[in-house]
């Protein structure tokens, strides 16, 4: 077996998150349609726009390492998105739906934060400053999205879920 190095890990991780982002891009409109509150709908729609930019940033990172932008199936994001679809289905028309959707979306953001955090460290180690900058921009967007979701939960979704 060929010796694999940090460069190979970086490429592999990039393919994983590229697959994940495109999966998320397809899931977010469903989450937006399902959400009951206008604020949560708007949050999902806004993050879909951001996600389009994140996909483009990843394409730039692939360019930096001279590789084709190609995803690799990420079973983790497939599972996390599937759990979100279960919430949509099982809590449909219930007062707990939005709280459940916030939780499902935070699982997605936390997966992304884990991946981008690691990829950024590896890019630093590899001395790829432009890649570090691109990955960091997205990492910050994911962290901000996670914080916004917490705010929406605190601002009403959790209380509404409890009330009934
Ligand atoms: Fe993302
Ligand atoms: Fe993965
Ligand atoms: Fe995200």
Describe it:
- Helix 1 (6-34) packs antiparallel against helix 4, helix 2 (38-64) packs antiparallel against helix 5 and helix 3 (75-90) runs antiparallel to helix 4 (97-125).
- This protein is elongated.
- The chain contains 5 helices and no strands.
- By secondary structure, the protein is mainly alpha-helical.
- 83% of the residues lie in helices and 0% in strands.
Number of helices: 5
Bound molecules: fe (iii) ion
Q: Based on DSSP secondary structure assignment, what is the total number of beta strands?
A: 0
Ranges where pLDDT stays below 50 over 5 or more residues in a row are: none
The residue fraction in helices comes out at over 70%
* Rg estimate, integer Å: 17 Å
- Principal-axes shape call: elongated
Summarize the biggest pleated sheet.
Answer: none
How much of the residues is beta strand, in percent?
A: under 5%
The mean pLDDT is 96
What letter string, H or E per element, gives the SSE order? HHHHH
What characteristics describe this protein?
164 residues, binds fe (iii) ion, single chain, elongated, mainly alpha
Brief overview:
This protein has 164 residues and is an all-alpha fold.
Give me the secondary-structure topology:
Layout: H1 6-34, H2 38-64, H3 75-90, H4 97-125, H5 129-163
Helix pairs in contact: 1-2, 1-3, 1-4, 2-5, 3-4, 4-5
